[in-house]
Write a structure and sequence with these properties.
Number of domains: 1
Strand content: under 5%
Number of helices: 9
Largest sheet: 2 strands, antiparallel
Structural class: mainly alpha
Shape: globular
Length: 222
């Protein structure tokens, strides 16, 4: 099984990341086509609707609930010498890395704050004033589209799901579904292109599994 992985990530995930990245670079019209599905010729109708607002605003509270709950259980386990949900120092370190590095440092600090890619609603194609630029191509237009911070944060719930000892596939599926719905909501609102969401997914997925391998080497090998 491990022979089919690189850095604890399945080879088909790496391949999919490379292939899709090349598609978004050399066929950038894919982004425009997908965003146009949510555009009515004047605006993005889904923007600020109940469902869009729900998924947009649910990410931070959900992450806080998971994080604070994990920390409280860790403190309780440490003081009482219990082992509720197996939350120990390794788990807390792992969660800090998952939440801080992938959605935090890489997506929001390195990419979003420096890439300059305009959001769909800011581009000329969708009623804005800025020029569309393909994914992975830095722009100087002071945009914050690449990549999606909300999608990255939503997908980072995979980090918690990966800790599950039972029904891990179910929890991972739920985390992936939630992240996907948040990504769709952001695209429907004209806030991000498809490539922004997909890039955030791969970044979070890859680093989540890398950190799991580094922190829980024995469990990962097993």
């Amino acid at each position: 099984m491990m022979k089919n992985k690189f850095l604890n990530v399945q080879l088909y995930i790496w391949l999919a990341f490379v292939v899709l990245s090349l598609i978004f670079i050399f066929i950038p019209q894919v982004d425009i086509y997908v965003s146009n599905l949510f555009y009515n010729g004047e605006t993005f109708p889904a923007n600020q609707t109940f469902l869009e607002e729900f998924f947009y605003r649910s990410v931070q509270p959900l992450i806080l609930v998971f994080s604070i709950s994990s920390l409280i259980i860790f403190i309780y386990n440490t003081i009482s010498k219990k082992n509720i949900l197996n939350i120990n120092a390794k788990v807390i370190l792992y969660l800090l890395l998952v939440l801080g590095i992938a959605p935090g440092l890489i997506v929001n600090v390195i990419l979003k704050d420096n890439w300059g890619r305009p959001r769909p609603a800011q581009t000329i194609e969708f009623g804005g004033t800025m020029n569309f630029t393909p994914a992975y191509i830095p722009s100087k237009q002071d945009g914050y589209s690449f990549s999606s911070g909300h999608a990255a944060a939503a997908f980072s719930i995979m980090g918690f799901a990966l800790l599950a000892k039972r029904r891990r596939k179910l929890w991972m599926s739920l985390a992936l579904t939630y992240g996907t719905l948040v990504g769709i909501a952001r695209m429907a609102a004209g806030g991000h292109f498809l490539s922004d969401v997909i890039t955030s997914f791969f970044i979070v997925y890859i680093f989540t599994h890398i950190f799991y391998k580094l922190i829980f080497k024995e469990e990962s090998d097993a």
